[in-house]
UniProtKB/TrEMBL annotation:
This is LysR family transcriptional regulator. Belongs to the LysR transcriptional regulatory family. It comes from the Bacteria. SUPFAM superfamilies: Winged helix' DNA-binding domain. Residues 1-59 form the HTH lysR-type domain. InterPro entries: LysR_HTH_N, WH-like_DNA-bd_sf, WH_DNA-bd_sf. Signal peptide: none annotated. PROSITE patterns: HTH_LYSR. Pfam families: HTH_1 (PF00126). Keywords: DNA-binding, Transcription, Transcription regulation.
Amino acid sequence: MDLLGAWRAFVNVSERGSFTEGAAATRVPQSVASRRVAALEKHLGERLFDRSSRGAALTHFGRDMLPLAKRLIRLADDMEHEAERARLSPLRFAVPDTCTVRDLARLDAEARRDGVYLDLHTAPPAERAELARSREVRAALTAVPPADALWSVPLGLAGADDRLPGTVYVETLRAGRTGRASRRTRVWIQPEDDVPHIRDPLFRVRDAVGLQPAQVTVAVTLTAATAEVLTSTDLLLCSSRQAMDLGLHWRPIGELRLARGYGVTAAAGDDAERVRTRLRRAVARCLGAPDENGEAPSRSST
């Protein structure tokens, strides 16, 4: 028996004194309302109404039950309202501050179509991890090695000069060599990539091929690093999609393969699962991660 539906029919019939009008208020046929009230009376072992051709009048037992029934219906309605509010409550989500406004807006829009409402908070890697640890956000995209990642974004070097070779070898930037190296070209690591699995291998290559320490360095901001690249022969470590956004020319690195890796950290398992499953493709597009065919999304496809 639909106990809540039966009590709702009972309240509506009692308030209107008619099964026909009470059924209409309950939004069910009159026969359904009658069956529900009859089943409720059988369940309780007492009649709730005296039925006659003039309508339905509450019995003494029915009058005693009416205040409790109204309280039950109000509580059920309040629970449904709170459940809807909880469902629509934004999921505060920490994401890389390298994501553009357009990328974030599209992530938000796709999430809404999937019934997930986001409160996006952009931050660098260490801050995202701390926000997740302190539960200031419900979920965060955190930096992890590519082997452990849900999303992986290949990195290369990008410069303002479109005459870059097809592959850039770090060792060609060594001071004393001819061409580009004589200008002490620097490689800028942006804050998003200031994590051990990206920064340390690049530092090891720098030291192994004899570059000066300052030739591979971590930038204070992406804006500052991009300005240096646009006004010199310097190179920026970035993804191909990011290079496109910045108006730079991207090339792979000859000596090693680097990639940003992202996982999800969340206090509640259902929040993490929601991001991993329902938002997986939308997050990939936002990060510029390659699709199933291994191709990075172009700006027109995002």
